[in-house]
């Protein structure tokens, strides 16, 4: 229509923004210092957002949702240039929301039942989570995921920026195992960092919400939204 | 008092592991030991802090040594028993921890306090080879800084010599993969650790600052010696 091509109409563009964690930056102390969260969120996470937006200015992925970008950008193990920034933006956002001040401990109700079903007991799950996290060589993440086909919870580790989304699983919670996530607070003591996360920081409330949503996808399948 | 701790600390870890070595040697497995640093932990300041050097040597490198020795003994047992599954399963621990020991042993020799010649540009054969293969010394530094900064996750950036082709190149390896995994003829002249533990306490997320500063304490004399031995 002619009106849109007139000089009065400017092109509207839309890029990703850095979402704020759902708590004050010092709220996770003493298990994760304010200094760490300031740097981790304000510098590392921010840099991934800025890097992604810069790429999107000239990328075919402009306009994609982050989840779509991750699944397509992963390109079956041969990631495209935009993949790394997109995945790390998503992973870090998911991470901040996987935590809650004065949380941890053990879950209740449906989540506890599912964990007991899939791991034997909460203690077993906790052991496996810590063990997996310590066995990851190099940088990466440890996740609790819901496996679609098997219809069960599982602990998985991914290297660098690899996301379970790209591998077809439904993420339920994650923990950043890159050294920048814990070095200022724990130096090389990854074990203490992981233990404190599972005992004091993981938000079972968020896990419950994500599981409810995940189970809907597993039980009812992906929604089939016809293209207009 | 703190200064004395810095000086005596570096040999403590090595002494503790020396004991373990003799025990395993009696069973026939040649285990490795944590090498001493040829300088004090604080000697590379302000380019690299004493705190980082101490942790890097006494914790990270020492852990690679301990875990490599453990994996070697497990491998020995598995090989003797003919347990192929375990032999294969141990490969990643051996590559990771063995590589960590190899890489860090080279790294400590790649560094030198400024007062002992650290940072002085390469001369003669290596200097000329750099000019020939990269255009200029500055161009080499620029390339290594760029590749080091761009490396995703953990790894190393290397100045490598292909001893067959007699050519220099800049390579990167992931995690603790040694340079030889990039090419059987590659000899490491210089390696820079870009794992976050190598710089985070001092430089935080600004890896490029770490890279531009580390050149002040790089031991080009050692790199030159390795080069001349390899091309001779």
Automatic annotation (TrEMBL), chain A:
It is found in: Plastid, Chloroplast. Its EC number is 1.15.1.1. Its cofactor is Fe cation. GO terms for cellular component: chloroplast nucleoid. Residues 108-208 form the Manganese/iron superoxide dismutase C-terminal domain. It is an enzyme of class 1 (oxidoreductase). Its main location: plastid. One of its GO terms (molecular function) is superoxide dismutase activity. Keywords: Chloroplast, Iron, Metal-binding, Oxidoreductase, Plastid, Transit peptide. It catalyses: 2 superoxide + 2 H(+) = H2O2 + O2. Residues 16-99 form the Manganese/iron superoxide dismutase N-terminal domain. Destroys radicals which are normally produced within the cells and which are toxic to biological systems. Belongs to the iron/manganese superoxide dismutase family. This is Superoxide dismutase. It comes from Zizania palustris.
Automatic annotation (TrEMBL), chain B:
InterPro entries: Fe/Mn_Superoxide_Dismutase, Mn/Fe_SOD, Mn/Fe_SOD_BS, Mn/Fe_SOD_C, Mn/Fe_SOD_N. Keywords: Manganese, Metal-binding, Mitochondrion, Oxidoreductase, Transit peptide. Residues 33-111 form the Manganese/iron superoxide dismutase N-terminal domain. It comes from the Eukaryota. It catalyses: 2 superoxide + 2 H(+) = H2O2 + O2. Pfam families: Sod_Fe_C, Sod_Fe_N. Residues 123-223 form the Manganese/iron superoxide dismutase C-terminal domain. Its main location: mitochondrion. It is an enzyme of class 1 (oxidoreductase). Its EC number is 1.15.1.1. This is Superoxide dismutase. It comes from Zizania palustris.
């Amino acid at each position: 229509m002619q009106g849109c091509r007139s000089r009065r109409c400017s092109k509207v563009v839309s890029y990703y923004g850095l979402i704020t964690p759902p708590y004050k930056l010092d709220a996770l102390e003493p298990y994760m210092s304010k200094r760490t969260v300031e740097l981790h969120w304000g510098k590392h996470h921010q840099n991934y957002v800025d890097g992604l937006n810069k790429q999107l200015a000239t990328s075919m992925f402009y306009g994609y949702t982050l989840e779509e970008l991750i699944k397509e950008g992963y390109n079956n193990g041969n990631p495209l240039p935009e993949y790394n920034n997109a995945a790390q933006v998503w992973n870090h956002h998911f991470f901040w929301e996987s935590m809650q001040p004065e949380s941890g401990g053990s879950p209740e109700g449906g989540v506890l039942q599912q964990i007991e079903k899939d791991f034997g007991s909460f203690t077993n799950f906790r052991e496996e989570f810590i063990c997996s996290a310590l066995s990851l060589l190099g940088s990466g993440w440890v996740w609790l995921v819901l496996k679609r086909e098997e219809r069960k919870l599982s602990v998985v580790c991914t290297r660098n920026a690899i996301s379970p989304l790209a591998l077809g699983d439904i993420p339920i919670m994650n923990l950043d195992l890159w050294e920048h996530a814990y070095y200022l607070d724990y130096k090389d003591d990854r074990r203490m960092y992981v233990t404190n996360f599972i005992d004091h920081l993981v938000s079972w409330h968020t896990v419950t919400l994500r599981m409810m949503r995940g189970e809907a996808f597993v039980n009812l399948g992906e929604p089939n939204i016809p293209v207009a | 008092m703190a200064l004395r701790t810095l000086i005596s600390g570096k040999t403590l870890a090595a002494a503790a592991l020396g004991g373990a070595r003799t025990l395993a040697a009696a069973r026939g497995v040649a285990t490795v030991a944590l090498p001493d640093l040829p300088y004090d932990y604080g000697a590379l300041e302000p380019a690299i802090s004493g705190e980082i050097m101490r942790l890097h040597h006494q914790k990270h490198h020492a852990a690679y040594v301990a875990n490599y020795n453990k994996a070697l003994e497990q491998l020995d047992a598995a090989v003797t028993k003919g347990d192929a599954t375990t032999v294969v399963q141990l490969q990643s621990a051996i590559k990771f921890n063995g590589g960590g020991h190899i890489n860090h042993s080279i790294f400590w020799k790649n560094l030198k306090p400024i007062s002992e010649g650290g940072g002085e540009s390469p001369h003669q054969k290596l200097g000329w080879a750099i000019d020939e293969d990269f255009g200029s010394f500055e161009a080499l530094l620029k390339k290594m800084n760029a590749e080091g900064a761009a490396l995703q996750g953990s790894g190393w950036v290397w100045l490598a010599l292909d001893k067959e082709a007699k050519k220099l190149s800049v390579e990167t390896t992931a995690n603790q993969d040694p340079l030889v995994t990039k090419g059987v003829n590659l000899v490491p002249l210089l390696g820079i650790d870009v794992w976050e533990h190598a710089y985070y306490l001092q430089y935080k997320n600004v890896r490029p600052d770490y890279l531009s500063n580390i050149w002040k304490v790089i031991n080009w004399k050692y790199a030159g010696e390795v080069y001349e031995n390899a091309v001779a």
